[in-house]
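Hey L., structure's done. Input below.
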Amino acid sequence: MKGSPAEADAARPGPFGLLWAVKPSFISYVSRMPDGKAYLGGGVAVNADNELLFPFDEEEPEHSAHGEERDAAGAGDTRVHTFRFRGDVLFRAHFGMLAVQISRPQVHLRGTDGTLTVVDPVP
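Output:
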């Protein structure tokens, strides 16, 4: 990614993480802008295919199931398994009018369903 400033205190990514592929046409678009940049923080790394690797948050205490819940009929495990990842990425162009941030993603699994969330950059 063009213009990815190195972070002085960036830790090397661990052996586990969330690999997030960003559409190549979006990366190309941002890269073509005179002020287009991608900022990486919190240990996020980029591989040769421009995929982002968010490191697994080993310090987060809740990586396992939350309770032993059952659905209303008493069948089926409804425990929620949450996996949290560190770091953030900010794509900027057009003097800040284009700003796309991906921050601290989480994957929530319940049975065969899953949800991917990120921290809202505007509280």
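Residues 1-11, 63-70 have pLDDT under 50 and may be disordered. Residues 24-32 form the longest helix (9 residues).

-- N.
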